[in-house]
Amino acid sequence: MSHRMTVAIAMQPEVAALALTEELIARLDKNAQVQPDVIVDFTDPAARGNLADADVLLTGWGCPLVDDAVLDAAPRLRAIVHAAGSVKHHLAPEVWQRGILVSSAASANALPVAQYTVGAILLAGKRAFRLARDYARGQYKNRLAADTGNHERVVGIVGASRTGRLVLELLAPHGFQLLVSDPTLDALGAAGLHPAAQVELVDLDDLLRRSDIVSLHAPALPETHHLLDDRRLALLRDGAVLINTARGQLIDTEALLRNCADGRIDAVLDVTDPEPLPAGHPLLSLPNVTVTPHVAGAMGTEIRRLGEFAVTEIERLTADEPLHGRIRADQLAQLA
């Protein structure tokens, strides 16, 4: 770089406090001038002044939409580095049309989601969620029941996304039979997902029929909207557990309610449609359904990992090195 880059930060201040510690800001200061004010509104006059000087925009949760008007106010902008996952909600197509580099910490955010998912899978195999509800209601059931335990369980992963691949990797040592369904994957690609695990590529209907536990990791796209509808949910074997840490729109909520109401299948949902579910929604009271408030992704101390990724990306940028989290325009259609 011919001049010292200037970095503007745009995200919720409370997110910035978690993602960008003093140590990380000090790292940035070695290679760039970091503007002290966190932007929360691009129309604010002070924000306009910061944009005018910015070579890099470091974004995070709560960043306002970056559109043509914002880009016009940032004539020096070279890159947008997002200290979180999806960039679809705050970056307009004009960002790519103007040739601005975009990077996302989605791979760093995938790890806590995968860890949460694996924990949910292991607990689901033990029937821990349902048994805990029963226990709270005074029903101490037989822990030696034949439908509990994880040995040789069949786990189906829907979507070989970053998170889906990490889940497969983390499940490899546990002795599961692993299935995967993804229209972008071929048999050779499935065989290479993890060297220590034999992952069988199957179509979605077959995966649903065969799996004891199904975990969703597909993006929210028009073609995946209500991917699991009444017909597909009916394919799940009695006693199957459905886990969703991806996007709520992948499941038809009313169809799920119908399939869970009689206890035939269980569900563990970290995302829902709508989100949040309205108070008193019947899914919330079913003993075989566990709903958490979208906590699988980075939280608390984990948010620093996203900041570390973003700061490292800016360091790569200043050294004219390739960005590890680069998002290209032609990838957007398949990303969450």
TrEMBL record:
InterPro entries: D-isomer_2-hydroxyacid_DH, D-isomer_DH_CS, D-isomer_DH_NAD-bd, NAD(P)-bd_dom_sf
Protein name as it appears in the record: Hydroxyacid dehydrogenase
Source organism of the structure: Streptomyces lutosisoli
Domain D-isomer specific 2-hydroxyacid dehydrogenase NAD-binding: start-end pairs: 119-296
Keyword field contains Ligase: no
Matches recorded under PANTHER family: 2-HYDROXYACID DEHYDROGENASE YGL185C-RELATED, 2-HYDROXYACID DEHYDROGENASE-RELATED
Pfam families: 2-Hacid_dh_C
Record bears the keyword Lyase: no
Leader peptide range in chain numbering: none
Keywords: NAD, Oxidoreductase
